[in-house]
Amino acid sequence: MTVRIKNEGISNDITATLKNFSETEINLPGISNPERRFVLAQQIIDSIRRIEYLHVVSIRAKSASLHTPYSGSFAPFGGAVVLHKAGRLDDAFWLVYLATHFGKHKIDGWNLTEDFYGRFGQGGAWDWPTASRDPLAISLWLDSIYPTVTASGRSRRFGNHRKFETLKPGPKGTGQAVASYIRWIAEYGSHDDLIRQVHKTVGQNPKEVFSYLYKDLNKVSKLGRLGKFDLLCYLGSLSIAPIVPDKAYISESTGPKAGAKSLFGSQTNTNTLESACTRLADYLDVNPQVIEDALCNWQKSPDKYVYFRG
After folding, report:
1. pTM for the full model?
2. Distance set, CA 225 to CA 123, 160, 166, 204 (Å)
3. 210-225 burial by CB neighbour count: b if 16+ within 10 A, else e?
4. Residue (of 101, 68, 127, 77) closest to 236 by Cα position
5. Of 18, 196, 220, 263, which has the fewest Cβ atoms less than 10 A away?
6. DSSP state letters, 192-213
7. pLDDT tens digit string along 117-136?
8. pLDDT tens track for 27-61
9. Residues near 1 by Cβ (< 8 Å), separated by ≥ 6?
């Protein structure tokens, strides 16, 4: 295999740890071939780095321009961190939710998130105080500007994992999705009240809080398994919410589940896959999100390393 190993020491460590896990904990028939084991190790490294990048953003983000539409440096994750540091927790959560709902397009980047948040340049912004006043306000606004405004100007497309979403009016559109999110938070009063209530219900263990929120997010439409998982992982990695995933949520997935079956054996049942992925994450001393992401990418090309942007 002709591939540049980004950090040979880390790569060797992970490769060896995978081999040891297979020999002493749970057999991993999918990587009995050293080449496949190497490829999975590279995907694990990439997944770790994606999470580490968000940790860096949580420390370094400082400029208000990051959450200001059309500032030239709009970046929703960095912007959310700045809002959080300024004590604007509701706005921080909201911006991360919008970034998750729209996703980052491989060419257009965050254009759609920025244009929506910036009201397509019509003035003002759909910040939390504005949007939360009336859950249906955004839906009515989108009804009035679709498709004349939303189809004009620069290219703005949903991210790959969100490609079936739409700005079109109707029960399956963005207007109804964001309304359901606003109503969800309104049940508690604010995002801070949400976290306080969850702490009262399940305690402050970050994994138990994650699990509770994951289930509670069923009240928000158009997120699905991946949207809920990504949203909570982003909030945790950016240090906006005190949460970490309790497991990889493989059982409800498509790509990660296929990867897990390839790794642990196609006959392995779903519950066993879930617990096995958790044990692997613990053995590697990584966030379960790393396993979820790495397996999803590894199963796309298990015999040859390919870099995926996530």
Report:
1. 0.96
2. 34, 15, 18, 23
3. bbbbbebbeebbbbbe
4. 77
5. 196
6. HHHHHHHHHHH-S-HHHHHHHH
7. 999 999 999 999 999 999 99
8. 999 999 999 999 999 999 999 999 999 999 999 99
9. 35, 38, 304, 305
